[in-house]
Amino acid sequence: MNDYLDLAGQLMMVRLFGTELDAETDAFLRAHRIRGACLFRQNMADAAQLTRFTGALKDALGPHALIALDQEGGAVVRSTWVPAPPSAMALGAADDPVLAREVGAAVARAVRALGFNWNFAPVLDLNNNPHNPVIAERSFGADPIQATRIAMAWMEGSESEGVACCVKHFPGHGDTHVDSHRDLPTVDKPLEELERFEFAPFRIAAPQAPAVMTAHIVYPALDPVNPATMSHAILSGILRDRFGYDGVIITDGMDMHAIAHRYGAGQAAVNALVAGADMVMAIGVRETQIETVHAIAQAIHDGVLPLPEVEARLARLSRLAERHPAGAGAYALEQDDRALMARAWRAGLTALRDPQRPARGSRVQLVARADVVSDGVSEAGVPAATIAAALGTLYDVELVTFADAESFDWSALPQDGRFTILASTSRRRYGERARAGWRPDLHLALWNPYQALDFPSPALLTYGFAPPALDAALAWLAGKTEATGRCPVPGFD
Question: Cα separation of 225 and 222, whole Å?
């Protein structure tokens, strides 16, 4: 059985806990020949710590190590001290493939210097659902051709710097009302519509994408029972057979509620591999990781996962690692990349309904959520006090904060003649209570652009809240730059 355990471990990516590779975890990785590790924000403190951690991981995982993270840009980044990349939709608004390629290369330079060789980006989901709770600005847009053109340029940039990409979430998470981290979504569309819309970016990307990540979503027209992650009809029938894809297929996190609340960890992993996945992202606790490796080993032993198919999966994973070797190095272009990211954020700035700049020195009432904590997918949003301090360099600012938009008494806001700016710093859209009758003079949509549709007010869209995004908004307010971006989803004309 030990030989099967060795094979099973090579088909797994695990989550780690803490900021150092402790002796027990090191022994677990080596004993089971685990090939992959995915690091998150809680695993990272600074560059010195992180390169030490990834170096230890490379030694423990072996020469074909796959060390991954989600460094998409915008709100979904894990290393927050490197140059902050724009969100996908900011690049979609700029609609400049050359700029997108430069940004993809810069992201890769930063994470490669930290020891990573696999980045779970770019997102190929086409966001045509204004109420999507998890994608929104993570998408490059809603037009299959335009969005894929920008995403592919980003991916080419990453590849040029030696970091493998992973397009996600196949066959498409853009038209969901449910976050698969919390429950199991269903996209109930006819096959013809899926072919025309959701499939298109993945079909275009298939010849070039090093890896594809699955979606924990049920598509009744394709498979009425199984989510895509566990669907042979979707992973093997469509992606492998119809699209001719021969790169790596990896599952999304198997600890997400869409899967973990419905299946045992071990059985879910086996189901995904039988469906056609090459690697299972077993990022739950250590107990579920152990359950997973034993379940996969048993499936190989029993012939549920035939050995020739296992060897084909291992070959694809080894090829990915060989073409993108892990290992930290110098980051020589950090300052140049910071300037690039600032330029890219400015290029995406989008004006809606002819917003007007208050004159310098104006009396301004700033309304903003007090604080936005991380939801486990995105990083924590910018605090209201930070925005107030930034606007304070231009205006006399009075800050009014709220904890929850639906319980806040919007009618009680002071009517004292100040120019009112609403700064939206979360992904969650506003409800009826906020929208009913109140409107700001200017809406700074500093995260989810769809929030600008919640009020009929002039708005400035940044598609993100990173420091260079806020700098870009301030530059616009100061009259130092224009908002030349065009929002790449319907409803913003």
Answer: 9
- Alpha carbons 115 and 234: distance in angstroms, whole number: 33
Residue tagged active-site, from 26, 59, 181, 257: 181
282/479 Cα distance (integer angstroms): 49
And the tokens for 57?
């991981």
Catalytic residue, candidates 175, 252, 278, 454:
252
Cβ-proximal residues to 487 (8 Å cutoff; 6+ apart), any chain:
89, 93, 350, 352, 449, 461
pTM above 0.90, yes or no: yes
Dump pLDDT digits (tens) for 51-99.
999 999 999 999 999 999 999 999 999 999 999 999 999 999 999 999 9
Q: CA 383 from chain center: how many Å? A: 21
CA distance 184 to 124: 20
149 and 131 Cβ atoms separated by less than 8 Å: no
Residue 394 DSSP code = T
252 is a catalytic site residue: yes
pLDDT in tens, 258-299: 677 778 888 999 999 999 999 999 988 899 999 999 999 999
